[in-house]
Specification:
Layout lengths: L2 H7 L13 H12 L10 E7 L4 H13 L7 H12 L6 E7 L9 H21 L3 E5 L7 H6 L7 E9 L30
Antiparallel strand pairs: 1-2, 2-4, 3-4
Helix pairs in contact: 2-5, 3-4
Length: 197
């Protein structure tokens, strides 16, 4: 498919089978991420590929965050929430945890490092789609918790930015997408002067 078709037909696919994904396809997805634009060629992305029992790393991290954020960590409710969190990574055979490691350089703006990694994630989602795989970019408050950094061996300035769950789509038909027309969200500026809504 061409790039325009890939952009318009890619969807978040959460329901996937447990069928293994060939390493060559995972590597293609990782390489696509590395071709994202990044200022000063800092390449601030870091990838952790979780498969098989390796998915427990994320499960334990999610469980720790659930306990750390519970009103009463010793309660049965907190224990149940931790157990539910522990099971989440087993919804897909492969999870790629994507993190940003901002460069320490006087001319590098930290926010732009985040932007580069978000662009890498989009590249990866499009590559997965082009390979016929189902993928979903999962985030949420636990993603950014300090305990997540601990489990993935990241430094204080680093940050996990999401998890790409990968697999063979469980359903043949992807959901239809819908977006506002770009005209509703665009201002064309052809002359100098103040912009108004």
């Amino acid at each position: 498919m061409n790039i325009s078709e890939a952009i318009r037909t890619r969807r978040s696919i959460g329901k996937v089978t447990e069928e293994e994904i060939p390493v060559s396809k995972i590597e293609q997805i990782l390489e696509a991420g590395t071709w994202a634009p990044n200022h000063k060629m800092t390449e601030p992305w870091r990838f952790f590929v979780l498969r098989g029992e390796g998915r427990k790393v994320l499960g334990e991290a999610l469980a720790d965050v659930a306990l750390a954020t519970a009103a009463d960590p010793s309660s049965p409710e907190a224990a149940a929430a931790a157990e539910a969190a522990r099971a989440k990574p087993f919804r897909a055979p492969v999870i790629i945890t994507v993190a940003v490691t901002p460069a320490e350089h006087e001319k590098v703006i930290e926010l732009e490092e985040y932007g580069a990694v978000f662009a890498a994630i989009q590249n990866m989602l499009l590559e997965a789609h082009g390979l016929g795989l189902g993928a979903i970019w999962r985030t949420g408050a636990p993603t950014y918790h300090a305990k997540m950094n601990e489990h993935f061996g990241l430094g204080a300035k680093d940050k996990v930015l999401g998890f790409i769950y990968l697999g063979i789509p469980a359903e043949k038909q992807a959901p239809q997408g819908k977006r506002k027309p770009f005209g509703e969200l665009t201002v064309w500026v052809d002359e100098a002067g103040p912009l108004r809504k």
